[in-house]
Design brief:
The complex is a heterodimer of chains A (446) and B (86). In chain A, 42% of the residues lie in helices and 17% in strands. Chain A is of the alpha+beta class and 446 residues long. Chain A folds into two domains: 87 residues, no CATH class; 326 residues, Cytochrome-c3 Hydrogenase, chain B (Orthogonal Bundle), CATH 1.10.645. In chain A, strand 13 and strand 14 form a beta hairpin. Chain B is α+β, with helices and mostly antiparallel strands. Chain B has a single domain, classed as SH3 type barrels (Roll), CATH 2.30.30.140. Chain B contains one helix and six strands; from the N terminus they run E-E-E-E-E-H-E. Chain B starts with a strand and ends with a strand. Classes of the chains: A alpha+beta (446), B alpha+beta (86). The interface between A and B is large, with 43 and 42 residues.
Chain lengths: 446, 86
Amino acid sequence: MTRLVLDELLDPSEVRVVVERAADGRLTGARLSLADLPRVEPLLVGRPIARVPAFVERLCGLCPAAHHLAGVRALEALAGIGPLPPQAVAIRRLLHHASAVAAHAERAGAVGGERSALAALAGFARSTLDAVGAQSHFPTTAAPGGVRVGVSPATRDALRHAAPEALAAAHRLALDALDQSDALDQSGARGESGARGGAGDAGADPSFTGADVALVDADGRPDLLGTHLRVVAADGGVLHAAEPAARFDAVLAESRPGAPAPRPYLRALGADRGRYRVGPAAQLGVGPLTTPLAADAQARWSDGARTASAARAVMVLAAVEAIAEVLGDDDVSLPVVPGAPVDLAALAGVPAGAVGVGWVDGPRGLLVHRYVAGGDGLLRAATILTPTAQNEPWLADLLRAAVARSAAAGALERAVREADPCLPCTAAPLGTMRLTVTDARVPRGT
Amino acid sequence: MCVAIPARIEEITPGPLPTARLDVAGRSASCCLAYLPQAAVGDYVLVQNGFAVLLLDPLSAAESLAAFADLGLWDGLGDGLLDAPG
């Protein structure tokens, strides 16, 4: 029996950075303890499959739209549903991109920037979410095969009217973030030259040699709600051009299945060499963006310090542009066809052993829901692969580089903010993140 | 995965690290408000690892707790265990 003990979820626990040293005191590694991020899959087994997405989004609570859409996509894969009507695609795109904007704009420490720009973006995101069935914290927007809500022409026009101010704020935010990371890059000592370059004092790790993994559209261009996965090595080589969700098991695997820190890897390179990262820096690393302002900012990011904090701001701009694009498309105001989403009871007919994978690129990166049907409408097994779990090896590299440069708390904080794990500490105002550092001696030969 | 629990703020103790006394589905608990200083008594919050991280509307909070109970993950007795089936 798996139990989540309420006290463990409610009792304050500071983030622990474990610094690993050899017997002679030499630094061998550093990592963030993920003990406070339990795996919830055992709680899901035996539940009605149709209810699993809603349950996961409520257990997580912090990225409900990303879990909502990844889960519904997994159900669609199980039931063989698709392609979606254009109006459903449009409304899901509004939900997903607005939730990404909100996730970053509501945390000043995530992207920096002026308070007025962040407030404008948060307000625009809120209005968009309200329009697509996310008036409460947990969206009811999507159902397998479609969406439950429509956007009236009047609401669409109001959002269109508000979009230019949001675009201007996002553009300002991105340019400011690029200025800041470039300034840190020039003022700080660069680390050893790496395939991607990098800014030592900006928190970036120039030595990270893992791949970038992100979702893309049919043309291989980054898309937060893309249908295919693209993997690009640090040297720019394309390891996977565009893999559909059904190929998930062939592309990624967990070294330690079911562990809070599962150490996922790219199967093609093996557990030792298959390191990778997800999230805004990876999204900018897999290919050129499709929207003009963000593409210009991406080009500048690529030539500069390439920090993840600046990448987040660029992806906020890309998300606002994506919203504006959808608002310009009349599909968003097509009437919702009653009964268009399939009857969830149809999922009861999914044969035992069938696997459905749904994924989205959320504000922190790739989120995967993988469900295995039990043949009776119940869930036999599941994997919920989160961005934080996938970025744990990258964060370990960032922390090790930070410890090697400086033991100052500020250096560790910048490293943690780069990877942006899903922990309360990332909501802390800049410079106030509380981290507990513990030393661990690594026995010889391990 | 991050796991966040909805709770209602009953009382706030201000200070450099403000804390809140919470009601979690009838059970008393506490959390740190350092990352959500705008929270007030009566507000619903999402609590992760002992920190309030998000203001939550009352309906969402109630729906979450109801979903936990409906799925058999909330014992309803206040001893704070979420049990898996079996």
